[in-house]
Specification:
Length: 510
């Protein structure tokens, strides 16, 4: 049975402008130009402008913004309304409007020399056929395919070998199980094979360069490289035995067990370990054709030190000035001045006004994005001023999103969107905005310090430790407590893991 009832609900709906602004706040400077290009492609009323065009735009701004809103059924302009009043002509002349004949007469100096010359005379013969050289390298898989082509294999085996090579990852490992690859070859390439045949061909591929390629595990990769050494030594033979039979104690750095089993001292074991550490655990990653391109960071903010005073600016190199297309404004003016208006003209003018309104929304959103970003970074600069002046991480103050939100009057979610994927260029390097945020930790004196300060002290202690006897988490905790930091051992372990530092046992070196 259907029932009807009344209920009160408190809802908050975001306007299209608010949604657009929230999305733009998350876009870093490196991608804002692409976002602007996408909007310009979708909206022909939007175009890039410059300072010379701002005066022209300001004259026509009122004409577009103050025009009445029309419905799709009827568009009626009052020919006597204030919107049709043409703006007064300005006495300011732009570069395009200046008459250069008032300042310069070409006849005074005769015919210009460049007008009588053959255009080919301006071409420097040294500039011909010049091009930027581009390095052409084979990829890792192409390099292996060439070697497979030189192997003594029949057509059936060669197809299997090429499939195996194509299944290697960028590090040079074969991660897929052989039994699954048997099914792949049967269903995808109609090749009937067996797991034993795949193993036999895989062993042949493992003889290719670079050494260690096509291994299925790190242990197998190291063994392949040790066994293929051109000049093996006694230490090489011991290294093979360690990797083959005692890989787990070696990986966990239980050196005392290895010394006891092989009856050797620390100096000799160190020579054996050196044989292993010189090997390449990722044979495919160092191949010239497989090197991934460098990633460049474009900072969103620029902070310069002007005689001890920090100056903050927004990096607008990827955000061109935007304006509403003058041709669209002219179309509206032409429509208003026309005495007879057809239905098609009314539909066209409705489309134009919708696009102009959308363009104004986007321009306002870009401007508001810049204002919000500047407000946020200015608040961060004021809080972390000592760090930005000195570059000393111990000068970082505890700061969370709520602190910046209270200082700027913005919502915490807005601060989070601004801080996400943004970078600031300082004289001490380009830093991620999120690196300025940290929790607080109290000292014996009751002072609150940043957790970044504690992490910096931890990393400094570990950097200068004796690698033969690394400092344990318990000892690190004791040292920090002596320095006045109230911290637990589990907190030290958490900070150490956040900095990607191994436990003391794995940091041990002979």
């Amino acid at each position: 049975m259907l029932n009807q009832n009344l209920s009160h609900k408190l809802l908050q709906k975001l306007s299209p402008q608010q949604i657009q602004l929230m999305k733009l706040l998350q876009v870093p400077t490196a991608q804002i130009d692409q976002r602007i290009k996408e909007e310009m492609e979708a909206n022909p009323a939007l175009e890039t402008g410059n300072e010379e065009d701002e005066f022209e735009d300001s004259k026509n701004e009122e004409e577009v913004s103050d025009s009445p809103t029309e419905s799709e059924e009827e568009i009626d302009f009052d020919e006597n309304s204030e919107d049709e009043i043409e703006p007064e002509e300005s006495t300011v002349e732009t570069v395009d409007e200046m008459d250069m004949s008032d300042f310069y007469d070409e006849a005074d100096e005769g015919v210009a020399d460049y007008k009588t010359k053959d255009p080919s005379e301006f071409i420097d013969p040294d500039d011909e056929n010049k091009s930027i050289p581009a390095a052409v390298n084979n990829t890792f898989h192409e390099y292996l395919d060439e070697q497979v082509g030189m192997m003594d294999l029949n057509e059936h085996e060669k197809q299997i070998a090429l499939h195996l090579v194509g299944s290697l990852d960028d590090d040079g490992y074969l991660r897929r199980k052989l039994d699954a690859m048997v099914d792949d070859l049967a269903f995808r390439q109609n090749i009937d094979t067996s797991e034993n045949e795949l193993k036999r061909i895989l062993l042949e591929i493992q003889k290719l360069d670079p050494s260690g390629v096509a291994a299925r595990t790190l242990q197998e990769c190291l063994l392949i490289q040790l066994r293929r050494k051109e000049e093996p030594t006694l230490y090489t033979e011991i290294a093979i035995k360690i990797i083959e039979n005692y890989f787990e104690p070696f990986a966990k750095k239980h050196y005392d067990k290895l010394e006891k089993h092989f009856d050797m001292n620390s100096a000799k074991l160190k020579r054996v370990i050196d044989e292993i550490t010189k090997l390449n655990p990722k044979p495919g990653s160092t191949f010239a054709g497989g090197v991934s391109p460098q990633q460049f960071i474009i900072p969103d903010y620029l902070i310069s030190n002007n005689n001890g005073e920090l100056v903050l600016s927004l990096n607008n190199s990827n955000a061109p000035e935007l304006r509403i297309s003058s041709s669209f404004k002219e179309m509206i003016s032409s429509y208003k001045s026309a005495k007879q208006k057809s239905k098609s003209q009314k539909e066209a003018i409705l489309f134009i006004k919708q696009k102009i309104e959308s363009a104004k929304w986007f321009i306002d959103a870009i401007q508001q994005r810049q204002n919000t970003m500047m407000m946020t970074m200015q608040a961060i600069l004021e809080i972390q001023y000592d760090f930005l002046v000195t570059g000393d991480e111990t000068k970082l103050k505890p700061m969370i999103l709520k602190d910046v939100a209270e200082k700027t009057g913005l919502d915490i979610s807005t601060i989070s969107r601004v801080a996400n994927s943004k970078y600031v260029q300082t004289e001490f390097g380009t830093l991620r905005l999120k690196s300025f945020f940290s929790e607080s930790l109290s000292t014996d004196s009751g002072e609150e310090v940043s957790t970044r300060e504690v992490k910096k002290i931890l990393s400094d202690l570990i950097a200068i430790e004796d690698k033969s006897e690394p400092i344990s988490d318990q000892k690190l905790t004791a040292i920090l407590i002596q320095k006045g930091y109230n911290i637990a051992r589990r907190t030290v372990a958490k900070y150490r893991e956040q900095m990607n530092i191994s436990v003391a046992r794995l940091r041990r070196e002979l």
